[in-house]
Fold:
Amino acid sequence: MTGTGRDLPQLLGEARRWFEEGLLAALAAEGVPAVTPPQVQLFAALDQDGTTVSELARRMGVTRQTVHQAVHSLVATGLLEQVPDPASARRRLIRRTAEGRRTHDRARRALDYLEDQLADRIGKDVVAALRSALEQPWGEPPTG
Structure:
C-alpha cells in the first residue's frame, strides 16, 4: 500500500470510472441512447463480426444471464442485433447494428479525446508508461 492509503485495485477502479464517466457524458452529448457502464463493457467486448453470449460472458467475467439482460436492452435501443451464427445452427451472434457501429466509432473518438486530456494533465510519458505497464502479460494471479 502507498502513502495515499489506497491500494492499486482501488486506484485502477477510480481510473476506470474516470474514463467511463467521461465516455458516458460524451455519448449523451451526442444524443446516443443512455447506456450503463456494464453495457459499455459489453459493447467493447464485441468482435466486429459478432460474438456469442457465452464468449461475451467469459470476456466480461460475468454470467450468461447478465450478458443476456444487457444484450436485450441494447437490442431494444437499436444498437445491437442477434443473428444466426454461420458456424453453428444452434448459436446466435450478437453484433452491432449500423447505428451501433456509428456509436462505437463515437465512443472510440471520445476515448481517444479522454486519453489526450489525461496526457495533458499528467504527462504524455506517464500515460505511455501506464499503457505499457498495463499491456504487459501479468500471468495467472498467485494463490495462497
